[in-house]
Every structure is written in structure tokens, then in C-alpha cells.
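Quick start: what a row looks like.
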Amino acid sequence: MSWGTPTDAPRPCVPSLRRWRMTIIGVLPGSRAEYLRIMRDLTAHGAHGIVLGCTEISLLVSTDDLPGVALYDTTALHVDKAVRLALGIESLPTATRPRWPFTS
């Protein structure tokens, strides 16, 4: 398994799109188109899945936009885990003490 991020060219536009187009003036078609362009570029370079690491990205794109590509919506994943913990369906893993080189 390998990891990838957008190339240097699209990366600067992503925070700009989030900050200005979504939080100040709302979702614009250009924002959605730019995110889809970046995601399609990633899949064209071999990405099989994309982490939607900011809450607002899932407002712009869906699995219908990128068939065959796994989209990992971190907001949904965190909410699901929080509900499972709150209902007692799951519990947090027990922390283990680090060994070498942190302890003697």
C-alpha cells in the first residue's frame, strides 16, 4: 500500500476553497468542480481511496461522483465511533506502555 497527496499545484487551492467559498459565501459549483478535478487526478495516478479529511468536503462530493473510488468521510467515521462508544457497543482500546527505547 502506498500513500499519496495532491501535487504542489492543487494543494494551495484546497485551503483557499474551504476557507473562502464554503465558510464565507457558501458552496459554489466551482468549489465542487475543483475538488472533483483534484480527486480525479489522484485516481488517475493510482489512488483507490480518498480521505475526506475536512468536514466540509463531504458536503461537496459523494460516492456517486467517483464510482469505484472509496471515500473515507472522517466526520462520519468519528460520529459513528463516538455513538458506538456512548452506547457501550465498543470500548476504547487499553493503552499499552511503550517499551524500547522509551523505558529501561
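That is the whole record. The CA atoms of residues 46 and 66 lie 13 Å apart. The mean pLDDT is 78.
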